[in-house]
Design brief:
The protein has two domains: about 70 residues, Glutaredoxin (3-Layer(aba) Sandwich), CATH 3.40.30; about 110 residues, Roll (Pdz3 Domain). A hairpin with a 2-residue loop joins strand 7 and strand 8. The C terminus is likely disordered. Strands 5, 6, 7, 8, 9 and 10 form a six-stranded antiparallel sheet that branches. With about 210 residues, it is of the alpha+beta class.
Length: about 210
């Protein structure tokens, strides 16, 4: 049996509305409690968090504070129906110290982009071969290709993923939009990671 989901919100709060839309789009059943009209909801939040903040999503005994799609996708119960997958459409590899030095990065972190598939979400967002993705939303990519793969796997068709990209010393923010329906010619995302021994070989895009 899936854990019950309760959402603590405040009427008129943009973040609360974004969380409710997120849950509705995914068909998640939940109980809504508005802190403006439900005094006991305020008491629960103050007792658990020491303050009243919205939105808060309670999944079982776990509290997810703020509108955080990454954590919501990770902990919300998944429908029993078929899972939908998205494709990033580019190969990536973990940045090594050698790559970091070559790219003049301030530290060894992120993933380097390899081949980008034409027509993919990565290409549409402006991702180029040789780019280094250093951040996903508010999170720094310290876990290499594995972290990036997990982040992509948590997305669903219709989602958008904000990336911080390092390109020739310049930092930019790019939005990768995953189409509501994955085109049949783009396979599910399996970003490739190369080792130092195969770094010189071209890696086919995911």
């Amino acid at each position: 049996m899936s854990d019950a989901v309760t959402v603590f919100v405040r009427s008129g709060d943009p973040a609360s509305e974004a969380t409710l839309r997120y849950l509705d789009q995914r068909g998640v059943a939940y109980k809504k409690r508005d802190v403006l009209s439900d005094p006991s909801a305020t008491a629960i939040l103050f007792g658990r968090l020491g303050r009243v903040v919205v939105p808060v999503v309670q999944v079982g005994e776990r509290l997810i504070v703020g509108h955080d799609p990454v954590q919501l996708a990770r902990f919300l119960p998944r429908p029993d129906s078929e899972e939908q997958h998205v494709s990033f459409g580019a190969s990536v590899r973990t940045v090594t110290s050698e790559i970091a030095q070559e790219k003049h990065l301030p530290a060894t972190y992120g993933v380097e982009v390899g081949q980008v598939k034409p027509g993919s979400p990565a290409e549409a967002a402006g991702i180029l071969p040789g780019d280094v993705i250093t951040g996903i939303g508010p999170y720094t990519v310290n876990g290499g290709a594995d972290q990036f793969r997990r982040a992509v796997s948590l997305r669903q068709p219709g989602d958008t993923m904000m990336l911080t990209v390092w390109r020739e010393g310049d930092i930019s923010e790019l939005a990768v939009a995953f189409p509501a329906e994955t085109p049949p010619e783009i396979a599910p995302d399996v970003p490739a990671e190369t080792t130092a021994e195969t770094a010189a070989e071209e890696v086919p895009p995911a």
